[in-house]
């Protein structure tokens, strides 16, 4: 892979989008390599949480590649959108939790990539926006759908219609990010959170993620039945036996299995 760096550290992985000359803009090659990296992550049972970040000081991802899109016809644009959406949906649907460590510009496709993650931590220098209408297009990798789900329909419309770029503190205020930290602390903070999550029972964490995400799309009666389903599935795992036995024996589980 030339544009993606995937590093494993014990039970977490850090995926870096690396195309610094174009501020990590997402072209077809990056999207395909990202797709390949997701295969690797999916097939590795030792990875319990994933951090996604961008290479360099300036950008997380400055969007989909404008130079590549410039001469696209509608059919090519549709295929490009379908590819980006497929890859981002795969990230969103990973069984493990994902944390976007937003180190700079997260515009257009970059904001959309961050929103496909479960949790977003931003550096003080991060900037967010969906500036597509200024280029004569709409967001194309999920922005019209995920932004409204995260910050509400009205704020999403304001941001998408104006193309305004907001700073990290405003992103925190509207609930687009979970936390803002100093630039030099960003990766450590994201890894710390990933490591903290990875101390818990991985099957239970994955099932909780699935229950939140599937339940969010459903009516409450369907959603709570889905919760009962995943809750019961936990009782078929060794982790449940280990976790509850350890509690009754007044000790902590050293390491949950997967
Ligand atoms: N696509 C392709 N190249 C990009 C890019 C992008 N989205 N963003 C930046 N670059 C390139 C620039 O062309 C430039 O390349 P050269 O050095 O070869 O000229 C290099 O990265 C550095 O960028 P700038 O010189 O522009 O850096 P700056 O500090 O002056 O500005 C910026 C930084 C404000 C992020 C500016 O680069 C910018 O506005 N980028 C585009 C942001 C944007 O509109 N993103 C949305 C894209 S559309 C989209 O994402 C659709 C979708 O949903 C699928």
From TrEMBL:
GO biological process: fatty acid beta-oxidation
NCBIfam families referenced in this protein's UniProt entry, alphabetically: PRK05809.1 (NF004475)
Catalytic activity: a short-chain (3S)-3-hydroxyacyl-CoA = a short-chain (2E)-enoyl-CoA + H2O
Full protein name: short-chain-enoyl-CoA hydratase
EC annotation from Swiss-Prot or TrEMBL: 4.2.1.150
Family: Belongs to the enoyl-CoA hydratase/isomerase family.
Subunit structure: Homotetramer.
The entry's keywords: Lyase
SUPFAM superfamilies for the chain: ClpP/crotonase
PANTHER family membership: ENOYL-COA HYDRATASE, MITOCHONDRIAL, ENOYL-COA HYDRATASE-RELATED
Gene Ontology molecular function: 3-hydroxyacyl-CoA dehydratase activity
Metabolic or biological pathway, per its Swiss-Prot or TrEMBL entry: Lipid metabolism; butanoate metabolism
Protein source organism: Caloramator mitchellensis
CDD domains: crotonase-like
Enzyme class: lyase
